[in-house]
Amino acid sequence: MCGLTSIIILTYNELYYTRKCIESIRIYTGVPYELVLVDNGSGDGTAEFLSSLQGAKVILNSSNLGFAAGCNQGLAAAAGENILLLNNDTVVTPNWLGNMLGCLDSRNDIGLVGPCSNYVGSGNQVEVSYGSIREMIEFARRFNLPDPSKWRQHSSYWLSGFCLLGKKWLFDLVGPFDQRFKTGSWEDVDYSVRVTAAGYKLFVAGDVFIHHYGNRSFRGNKISLAAVQAENARQFYNKWAKR
């Protein structure tokens, strides 16, 4: 297991959560990485904060281009042989990236790897009882003890894009995220299906737990998640019904 991992994070306001996310990356990431930060027109000081981060690659958009377009900008700027897409409303934990890379590198037919979380819609959610981030870190420290026996092929046909790891060559092979999916919803489902169609498997690193606040950009910016999901679901089924 070696090589640089490009951690791509999209932001749209919600500076409080972005700070916590990046702080946790700095503390708990023990393998080589670079930060690729794409801001979609924030107006709350996020752009200024990102620009102040030494060594990070920062892309500042003047408006909200959506999750898919922002991811594609990040992918184009990434220098790592591994790509990690991460939502800004997450808190990463001890051993998180090392364990995920171990899973990814364990088989040649693995395309994408996701972690377990308290808030994820794609089947890799676990029950938790912690009441604070400090308690969460202690929970995760035990949960994240490296254990290859917990790496498993995913039972669902998609992995959530809140935290998604793959090789750069795979993203080059499958191509960019489909920008018909606006704002942020269903583009991860579409990408998972495309990866599977290319002959690669979706895996869950069952020895990785990451805290996810969930949909903060929707809630904080008063965007209707239900409306976005409905439209993007329509786009998805229209696209794949023809295949």
Automatic annotation (TrEMBL):
Pfam families: Glycos_transf_2. Residues 6-152 form the Glycosyltransferase 2-like domain. Keywords: Transferase. Gene3D superfamilies: Spore Coat Polysaccharide Biosynthesis Protein SpsA, Chain A. It comes from the Bacteria. One of its GO terms (molecular function) is transferase activity. Coiled coil: none annotated. PANTHER family: RHAMNOSYLTRANSFERASE WBBL. This is Glycosyl transferase family 2.
